[in-house]
Write a structure and sequence with these properties.
alpha/beta; 2 domains; 17 helices; globular; six-stranded mixed beta sheet
């Protein structure tokens, strides 16, 4: 397979002729730039996750909220509004859709192959990208082969080869170049072309060492993002960068710490950085209420500590834009004004998602074969289910889609530990719902009818290519694990009607249900832990009637718990659950284990056994939202009384639980 020919990247800067004859509205910076000034627009995509086309492979149907081919259609119009423009990406390219799994697990990458993501990006003329945490999910060798197919550089200033950091970050043996300085020609307000040197530096969350320890331990280490920025940005300036752009695959958090996962706020405060492109959190900035109350963050203007910043959604949902008005200062350029915007590919009209752009035909054509091969890959049956699998009620009741994951993990770990020192310990299993609405929308749920189960359905049950882990913990630690999970629920006042049940700031993938024990959750108690694992109410006990084998659990008894590498490695900051508790690291992904389990059983029975429920609260009811198709399964839910309670927001349906 040969590389796709890339249009000269310098061409994207001279965008004035891109829409010759078309009526376009110039950005104010482009309209008012003087002879010694120039307008530069920087376009960002982030968290594409191999969602190259507007197609949801898990649901096996089109989806107007995603797809690089749609985002690509924004490019020409956006360039036409600008005096000069460039296109960059902020990472998380290689994993997150079945197309990514198909390439990694079935087709493979030979030397010289071009990955579908690179086919699309090469066509569109990207200037640079950085690494996201999901670039490592399939191993370093795979990532290297993919990057080799890019006609643009990748940069990362905090991923270091080997097992040791140098005393000075500038002496680190980095896996990639920390930055690039692009020599470009920019057209000023008088129409004169002038040289400019644009520096681009990139960062990845240091937590990849936890999340992908299997692929990274012994091969690389990570450095604190801000520490790396403070070391390398001055060198970029020394080498003549007129402006410095940070590609920070890291979200926005204003609580400073070392080795921060979401460090973009503090990156913006590093002297010498002119603009910050963020991602990782799958949110939109500016214009997002999640950030509006943070000190130093202007969620309306799109600034972090006064520095322009943008986060362009996820899966191609938005194009992030930062516009800079530059002014010539002697022999160099400086930023005198800036604006930020996240431009969507769809809008909500009458409770429906309506696309604002069509597909870019050249991207669709380039990916035709990969799309068809992925469809074939996900449609293959692997077994049968005696009951439907759905996640509409996964946050409020024992759930069949979570149940089948736990059944598969228990089956797998019990067999593998049969001849080990842990063979006599009881095996529990922890699993959480991945598709439970939220930011994914009212259709973002698992929904598999009884009958044949195809690979697409297994991917639907388990969204990420995590690998199986087993930890050894005590009964007391089982309780604390569940106390952390129970933080997803708001505290409920006894005797009050229709109180909101779910805390929207608590990720559903951290709502672990532990199979093999039974328990109730007392919602009248405050949460013991906050969504990040910090103790909120040390004396709280939401988990009541915790039983094993029909008896109150012994706090000192030892258990093996089957889980995934993310949780076992400390992901989610569950109390005392970390790498030190791991007794077994499986070579298999959780999805592979589910497939094997279904194949082994032929027909699975995922009926939920209601091993957990809410403790009764007389005269009390709560409200939650789920997908509108939940009504088809409400009669099947055990252990809780649920009734419809009208329409929810943004296409969701509202339901009531009487406690």
């Amino acid at each position: 397979m040969s590389h796709v020919v890339l249009p000269l990247s310098r061409r994207s800067f001279l965008a004035g002729s891109a829409a010759a004859g078309a009526l376009v509205m110039l950005h104010p910076f482009a309209a008012r730039a003087q002879a010694n000034q120039a307008h530069l627009r920087i376009m960002e995509t982030t968290d594409i996750h191999v969602n190259l086309l507007p197609y949801d492979y898990y649901a096996d149907k089109p989806n107007d909220t995603m797809g690089l081919s749609r985002t690509a259609s924004l490019i020409d119009a956006i360039r036409a509004e600008a005096g000069n423009a460039m296109l960059i990406d902020n990472g998380d390219l290689l994993q997150g859709s079945p197309m990514g799994d198909y390439i990694a697990y079935e087709k493979g990458m030979k030397e010289g192959d071009v990955h579908p993501i690179m086919k699309g990006m090469n066509l569109l003329g990207y200037e640079c990208s950085t690494l996201g945490n999901h670039e490592f999910n399939y191993g370093l060798s795979f990532m290297d082969k993919v990057i080799a197919g890019a006609n643009f550089p990748f940069v990362c200033a905090n991923l270091v080869r080997g097992t040791q950091l140098a005393s000075n970050p500038r002496d680190d043996k980095l896996y990639l170049k920390p930055y690039v300085i692009l020599d470009r020609t920019i057209k000023d307000g008088a129409g004169t072309e002038q040289p400019i040197r644009i520096g681009i530096i990139g960062f990845v969350p240091p937590q990849v060492m936890i999340w992908d320890a299997k692929n990274l331990t012994g091969n690389v280490v990570t450095r604190d993002i801000v520490e790396a920025a403070k070391a390398w940005v001055p060198q970029m300036r020394e080498e003549g960068a007129d402006i410095v752009i940070a590609l920070s695959h890291s979200g926005i958090d204003t609580k400073e710490d070392t080795m921060m996962e979401n460090a973009s706020f503090f990156v913006a405060g590093v002297e010498g950085i002119d603009a910050v492109f963020t991602g990782h959190q799958h949110l939109v900035f500016p214009g997002n209420k999640d950030f509006q109350d943070l000190a130093g963050v202007d969620a309306a203007k799109g600034t972090l500590q006064g520095t322009p910043a943008v986060m362009g959604g996820f899966w191609g949902s938005h194009m992030g834009l930062i516009d800079l008005l530059l002014e010539r200062d002697g022999s160099t350029w400086k930023v005198v004004s800036a604006t930020s915007e996240a431009r969507p590919i769809y809008e909500r009209v009458d409770k429906k998602n309506v696309p604002t752009v069509e597909d870019d035909p050249k991207v669709v054509a380039a990916l035709k074969d990969d799309h068809e091969a992925t469809l074939e890959y996900v449609r293959r049956p692997v077994g049968k289910s005696s009951a439907p699998l759905y996640s509409y009620f996964a946050l409020v009741a024992d759930d069949p889609s979570v149940q089948v994951v736990s059944q598969a993990q228990t089956w797998y770990i019990t067999d593998l530990l049969r001849e080990t020192q842990w063979k006599d310990l009881p095996v529990l299993s922890a699993a959480a719902p991945f598709k439970s609405g939220g930011r994914g929308g009212a259709g973002y749920y698992t929904d598999v009818p009884a009958g044949d189960i195809a690979i697409k359905n297994v991917s639907d049950l388990y969204l990420y290519p995590n690998t199986v882990r087993a930890v050894e913990i005590t009964g007391a630690q089982v309780k604390e694990w569940l106390e952390m999970s129970a933080g997803i629920f708001n505290q409920i006042e006894k005797g009050k009607a229709d109180q909101p049940l779910i805390n929207p700031d608590f990720p559903s993938y951290n709502f672990d249900v532990i199979d093999g024990v039974t328990y109730r959750i007392d919602l009248s108690q405050p949460p013991k832990y906050d969504p990040k694992g910090a103790v909120l109410n040390a004396g709280s006990n939401r988990i009541v009637d915790l039983m094993f084998d029909g008896k109150p659990i012994d706090p000192a008894q030892k258990f093996v718990v089957a889980t995934n590498n993310y949780r076992a490695g400390g992901g989610g900051n569950f109390p005392e659950i970390n790498q030190s508790k791991v007794i077994f690291e499986a070579p298999d992904t959780n999805r592979d284990v589910i497939v094997r389990y279904i194949v082994d059983k032929g027909t699975i029975n995922p009926t939920a056994d209601a091993n957990w429920s809410f403790a009764p609260l007389d005269g009390t009811s709560v409200i939650f939202e789920t997908g509108p198709k939940a009504k088809e399964h409400i009669a099947e839910v055990k252990g809780v009384t649920i009734e419809p309670a009208g329409e929810g927001s943004d296409g969701f349906a509202r339901y009531r639980i009487t406690l």
